[in-house]
Design a protein that fits this description.
The complex is a heterotrimer of chains A (410), B (262) and C (397). With 262 residues, chain B is α/β, with parallel strands linked by helices. Helices cover 36% and strands 24% of the residues of chain B. In chain B, the strands form 2 sheets. Chain B has a 6-stranded mixed sheet with strand order 6-7-8-3-9-10, with helices on both faces. In chain B, helix 6 links the parallel strand 7 and strand 8. With 397 residues, chain C is of the alpha+beta class. Classes of the chains: A mainly alpha (410), B alpha/beta (262), C alpha+beta (397). Chains in contact: A-C, B-C.
């Protein structure tokens, strides 16, 4: 195409999308000015401010003030583990999706594929990369850079291993990916012996979110089946549970967890504050998962269950082999959506006084060198940015998945 | 209708067989969807009171053709004139043409939130500003014509597919259009319901309504069509009476297509 | 064999009888749950005894005096804790109503903007939605509260207030907005207004009726509005101007006078909730309009309806039905999220409760009561939604 062709294309696009008529042109001018002003303000905020306070407190933001020295290797090892497992799963997924056309499988060990891999990874995860680059540039930490590069290398090698796994090992890879965070938590808590109360910053909220999702999932499925049960007692108990936890704000539940749960247990059994928060997150999210799974169960044609019955399968096999796998597949995007919700809700640990990112953000501004300079906008912005990037990336991935699975559109 | 051998001039799509003058005229019409050309230099005329059936494989542009006539699609080149009004970007012309043409869709497209009677009276009241009482009298009359007066107060989802399509016909007729466009009106119907819809359409044809019908129902074409137009790849390939298509279609492509649907 | 002698049905052994198994299974579930609850309850009793706090069924703490006042309310410290809770409940409901109205306006506008053919408008709305939908509401609220008000990163300090003349003035101590207040008892004029609404509505009905009968457009909404305004103005004049406008302004010394002053706590909570929830409402609006099948718009076009008529008669009535369940869910979320007020010390229901507990009220009863109140609100919302859904349900679907 010639340069002239490009210009006319662009011209036509601009006319069609920006200046169709007089009203449109006015809108374009007004919103153009507004967008330009906001972009200018945002850029001058990010580039023009002195980020010294965040630079000095980066470690505090990420893992909390109580983890230092060699203990810092605990979260690092956790990240490496998860990176490797995710790499394996992506490789295995790629393999199984292109089983009939092996040429389309991207193999990290073939340099010819590197560009493709890099391109796709950046296209999907650019907000995360942008954040990591921002953090590395700000702190100028060589160790941080090496840790990041090691994590990327592990994901890369994991992917190489993933594409070499035999077909059908996707589910094992997925299981490994699900187990990796659990192992990471165990390493940090018991391998390095870091007490629950010492977890802080984004390490704390990531742990609370991941644990909440993992634990609430089985409970949610159980409740959904209970709600669909023909047995009145099962149904009644499930409905009461679900409606209670959906009707009361999470803030109130967390306060109850912090101030009331202790009254219901013998003193020796009372868990630490972070664990009580995780328990509340679990109980709360289970009620929402139950409704999501119920939606999936309702979307299944009745014929599926009848066909299975006609084959003489026992009830529990019908549920676990026929009904649940299909129902859960249909609601994967909704489950991701619920996970995003919980991720955002972990910020509520602020209210029960835990060392989560928002509380830390305001604590930084009370340090002697930064006191009274109105720096709270900086530290809060940084904390909010990480919350945003994680949830934005997850929601983009969930939309991708939705398109791929073809659910949500009938 | 007529069994006489086809006159040679009928091979040209711009020669009409209607009782009066020309009501629809398409001249050198092109239509693109992105890079795909859906209509290529289409020339066609339809006379008053004429019934034209358009056949052709899927993707041949026959739906696009009639959707251009009431401007559900904008044509990219050429002229389309309906009852003396040329279709352009002029919103007044578009409104005028739509008022004078009724359309029946493959998927009925009844308004699910309105009763059958409200579906039928919506346009007369909103567009023609007909008083409600008169619009309803007219609406019931139209429902009578398609033989479902008793369904007036039900909602579309409570009717069978055939009944819904007949409501759709009544809805279009209620605007007292000069031309009726049918876009595969029986393709979404169960076999036992096709006939009731075709009967309504035949009756309409007998009243002298100008109709353009996209359909594969060759029996219908044989009974009421003045002309049959065969389209492929956005072009008009062959024109003639239904009899002509049954007995000796001249083009190879036409023969191949007919052998698949008959 | 005769018909009378039907063979006796074979009885399976009890442990294989489906019906017996069902009953036993349910009984077992009840017993397990019951035992769990009993264990928790006995722990509660033991703990309460050993701590020497009121028994879990003793709600008499509600009658004791609060011992403190609530900012912005005329509650006296000598009034009971129940009165304080009532103030909190009213405030929760009040912020929910104001929040829902503002959220709906902003969210619907953004949702329509998302569908705009103008690329810049659609992009602006998309950035807004992605920005606020993916940020925890607590972050937004605290950012506004600490970042804008208390520490003044974006708003000027006291004595240096900014204003949009006569409409709005702000500094780090709060926002003042233009407000209407009554010089005397508000009731006479409120009655006039109610009457005006009734008459205006009657006019709308009447003009609609005429339009139906004659077919000619009679502009029902416009006529109704004109009649309403005329009555409102005449009534206002007749009552000798019972209201006065209070416009905020910045005085010589740079301080804000006049207007209705919103405290930083209230403003931060309200703005935060509205910004966050509007992003969800925008998505619901967009999805609902897109959910109306394309054929519907085509059919309406083919009938010759104008763009406005298509929107009013065909698209919106259907989109609204799709939107109501998720919308009511968002409204409920906003109401529940108003409990985020505890983080910034705006005193509503949750904050009152946690303050009461901090001042010695028994935690179990206080939070049980709080949870119960929220459940009541949820239940009421669910009932209203179901009622509206039932009224709007399309027969045959």
């Amino acid at each position: 195409m010639t340069a002239g062709g490009v210009t006319t294309h662009a011209g036509a696009w601009i006319r069609q999308n920006l200046f169709r008529n007089a009203r449109d042109s006015i809108l374009t001018v007004v919103f153009g000015a507004l967008l330009a002003f906001l972009t200018y303000r945002a850029l001058s905020f990010v580039l023009g401010e002195d980020w010294e306070i965040q630079r000095q407190n980066m470690r505090n933001s990420l893992v909390g003030p109580e983890i230092s020295g060699t203990d810092l290797w605990a979260p690092v090892i956790g990240i490496w583990l998860i990176a490797a497992a995710v790499g394996v799963m992506i490789g295995a997924l790629d393999r199984s999706q292109h089983a009939d056309q092996p040429g389309a499988i991207l193999d990290p060990l073939r340099p010819a594929h590197w560009r493709q891999i890099a391109y796709r990874t950046v296209a999907r995860l650019w907000p995360v990369f942008a954040l990591v680059v921002f953090i590395l540039l700000l702190t100028g930490s060589t160790t941080g850079l090496l840790v990041t590069l090691a994590a990327m290398a592990l994901a890369f090698l994991g992917r190489a291993a993933g594409v070499r796994l035999p077909l059908g090992s996707v589910r094992w890879a997925a299981l490994a990916t699900a187990l990796a965070p659990i192992v990471a938590v165990l390493i940090i808590r018991f391998g390095f012996g870091i007490d629950w109360n010492d977890w802080g910053g984004f390490l704390l909220v990531a742990f609370a979110g991941a644990a909440g999702i993992a634990l609430s999932f089985p409970l949610g499925i159980f409740l959904a089946l209970g709600r669909r049960s023909k047995l009145p007692v099962m149904k009644g108990l499930s409905v009461a549970y679900i409606e209670f936890f959906r009707g009361v704000p999470l803030v109130v539940l967390l306060l109850i967890g912090s101030l009331v749960i202790g009254l219901f247990l013998p003193r020796s059994l009372i868990p630490s504050e972070p664990i009580r928060a995780v328990i509340i997150f679990t109980l709360f999210t289970a009620a929402y998962f139950a409704e999501v799974v119920r939606g999936g169960l309702q979307s299944l044609p009745e014929g599926q269950e009848e066909a299975a019955k006609a084959l003489g399968l026992p009830a529990w096999r019908i549920t676990s082999f026929i009904v649940l796998p299909q129902a859960l597949r249909n609601v994967i995007p909704a489950i991701v959506g619920q996970s995003i919700s919980l991720w955002k809700d972990t910020s509520l640990m602020f209210i029960i006084g835990l060392a989560e990112p928002l509380r830390l953000a305001s604590a930084f501004t009370r340090q002697p060198e930064f006191r009274g300079q109105g720096l709270i906008t900086l530290t809060l912005f940084f904390a909010g940015l990480i919350y945003w990037i994680v949830s934005f990336t997850m929601s983009r991935e969930s939309q991708r998945l939705e398109r791929k699975l073809g659910v949500g559109q009938r | 209708m007529s069994t006489e051998p086809i006159a040679e001039e009928l091979r040209d799509a711009t020669v009409t067989r209607g009782a009066g003058g020309v009501i629809i005229e398409l001249a050198q019409v092109d239509k693109f969807f992105g890079d795909f050309q859906a209509l290529k230099d289409v020339n066609m005329k339809v006379g008053k009171q004429e019934v034209v059936v358009v056949i052709g494989p899927s993707g041949s542009g026959k739906s696009t053709l009639i959707r251009c006539i009431n401007r559900l699609e904008e044509h990219d080149a050429g002229r389309i004139v309906v009852d003396g009004v040329e279709l352009s970007n002029d919103i007044k012309a578009i409104r005028e043409v739509r008022r004078e043409t009724g359309m029946v869709f493959q998927q009925f497209n009844l308004f699910p939130h309105l009763t059958v009677l409200d579906n039928v009276t919506l346009a007369p009241r909103q567009v023609r500003k007909t008083p409600r009482a008169e619009a309803e009298r007219l609406g019931r009359q139209m429902l009578e014509q398609v033989k479902i007066p008793e369904q007036a107060d039900k909602y579309p989802a409570q009717l069978s597919g055939g009944q819904q399509q007949r409501v759709a016909i009544a809805r279009a007729l209620a605007m007292q259009p000069k031309v009726m466009l049918f876009d595969e009106p029986t393709s979404a119907l169960d076999p036992e319901m096709i006939n009731e819809v075709l009967e309504s359409m035949k009756e309409l044809a007998r009243t002298g309504m100008t109709m353009i019908v996209v359909t594969h129902e060759m029996g219908f074409a044989r009974e009421v069509a003045d002309r049959v137009v065969f389209m492929e790849e956005g072009q008009i390939v062959e024109v003639g009476t239904a009899e002509h298509f049954f007995t000796n279609p001249s083009e190879e492509r036409t023969k191949l297509f007919l052998s698949q649907i008959l | 064999m005769t018909a009378a002698q039907a063979p006796a049905r074979a009885r399976p052994p009890l442990w294989r009888d489906v019906r017996v198994l069902r009953v036993v299974g349910q009984a077992a579930a009840l017993v397990v749950v019951g035992m769990l609850l009993a264990w928790l309850w006995s722990n509660l009793q033991n703990n309460v005894d050993s701590l020497g706090i009121p028994a879990p069924t003793d709600f008499s703490y509600l009658n004791q005096p609060v011992g403190q006042s609530i900012a912005g309310s005329d509650l006296r410290p000598t009034q009971s804790r129940l009165d304080a809770l009532q103030v909190g409940l009213v405030r929760t409901i009040q912020i929910a109503i104001v929040g829902i109205i503002l959220t709906t306006i902003l969210g619907v506008l953004l949702g329509i903007a998302r569908l705009s053919q103008n690329w810049l408008v659609a992009t602006f709305a998309r950035i807004y939605v992605e920005l606020f939908r993916n940020t925890p509401p607590l972050v937004v609220i605290i950012f506004i509260y600490l970042g804008m008000f208390i520490n003044g990163g974006f708003l000027p300090r006291v004595g240096d207030a900014v204003e949009i003349p006569n409409l709005l003035a702000a500094d780090i101590r709060g926002i003042s907005v233009l407000w209407v207040s009554f010089t005397d008892s508000p009731w006479p004029y409120l009655l006039v207004l109610v009457g005006a609404i009734a008459v205006g509505w009657g006019v709308v009905r009447w003009r609609n009726h005429v339009q139906d009968a004659q077919g000619k457009p009679t502009y029902p909404m416009l006529s109704g509005l004109v009649v309403f305004l005329a009555m409102a103005i005449v009534g206002w004049l007749a009552l000798g101007g019972p209201t006065e406008l209070s416009a905020p302004s910045v005085a010589e010394n740079g301080r804000v006078t006049g207007g209705n002053k919103l405290t930083p706590e209230y403003a931060a909570l309200l703005i935060g909730l509205v910004l966050y929830t509007a992003s969800h409402v925008a998505e619901i609006t967009r999805a609902s309009i897109q959910a109306v099948a394309r054929g519907q718009d085509e059919a309406a076009k083919a009938l010759g309806l104008s763009a406005g008529q298509r929107l009013r008669k065909v698209i919106l009535p259907q989109a609204l039905r799709v939107a109501i369940p998720p919308l009511s869910n968002q409204y409920l979320n906003l109401t529940k999220n108003s409990s985020l007020a505890v983080a910034i010390a705006y005193v509503e229901m949750t904050r009152v409760t946690s303050d009461l507990v901090a001042n010695g009220a028994p935690a179990f009863q206080a939070f049980l009561l709080l949870a119960f109140l929220y459940l009541l609100i949820s239940l009421a919302t669910a009932l209203i939604t179901n009622f509206i859904n039932g009224r709007l349900a399309i027969p045959g679907r």
